[in-house]
């Protein structure tokens, strides 16, 4: 996807799109707003995904003094003109059909819901999270790191959604930077440590020499996309029930190999927590401590290499997932791997 899609010509983009914004010195490059959360009058409970995960992460970070309403960065909603940098018109139009959205969200009951409600209760939150990912990419360049409390929709490509992923926020994050900041960002590495294969962006960047992909995933679970595997530079399929010792060794060894082969201007870290033991969809056996150690290693690697890093929270299907993500972010701060302005928090 090195070339800008022809659809970009359908809109007059400003050189500084509305999704990008300057943040104040007191703000922390952690991106979130309450509109991230899905509320379908209870229908969201039919899906194993915790639709309040993002709100709960933010709440814990606030309770521990890392964030507040003043210091958090609140993104704008990704609009059609932003989405068209990557997505096909035909695909975006298809989302006006509740049946199509039900297939992507894997909630059959959505077929019976008027699309106007689907747009408001599900697609709008996803567009805010997508806007958050795009913004976080630029903040990482400016501050050295950024975290979007949402995002990480790695099963969605430019023309096809799936696995609860409606918008291709990872592809959008990268393509927006390539388009608007070509002098700052020429090469990007994606390190995907969600339990599932990131087949969406893998298809999008199949012909790109500017994007290098490392994907560590459970080979026995969804999506088993054989075609997309051909476009992974460091392809690491692992077995179900892989636990801390083996998992952390595999991640460390392969990231070191990747860093010798490719030097990026930005690292996009898809930090799924569905690797946690007991996750019914991830099928792995990594402990809470293992997740904290994994995130710490990836951030430490980037800081030592002086590579800006943007983290997306991606999958995680247990109620305790929010607590683990929040504790991991707090651990990153305590280890000095992320910082606050003038160190005036926590």
Automatic annotation (TrEMBL):
- What are this entry's molecular-function GO terms? histone deacetylase activity, hydrolytic mechanism
Question: Nucleus as a keyword?
Answer: yes
Give the record's GO CC terms. histone deacetylase complex
What coarse category fits the chief subcellular location reported for this protein?
Answer: nucleus
- Indicate whether S-adenosyl-L-methionine appears among the record's keywords: no
Q: CDD domains, per this entry? A: HDAC_classIV (cd09993)
Q: What is its EC number?
A: 3.5.1.98
Where found, per UniProt?
A: Nucleus
Catalyzes what? N(6)-acetyl-L-lysyl-[histone] + H2O = L-lysyl-[histone] + acetate
Keyword set, alphabetical order: Chromatin regulator, Hydrolase, Nucleus, Repressor, Transcription, Transcription regulation
Family, according to the entry, reads as follows:
Belongs to the histone deacetylase family.
Q: What does this protein do?
A: Responsible for the deacetylation of lysine residues on the N-terminal part of the core histones (H2A, H2B, H3 and H4). Histone deacetylation gives a tag for epigenetic repression and plays an important role in transcriptional regulation, cell cycle progression and developmental events. Histone deacetylases act via the formation of large multiprotein complexes.
Please describe the quaternary structure of this protein.
Answer: Interacts with HDAC6.
- Please identify the protein, giving its name as recorded: Histone deacetylase 11
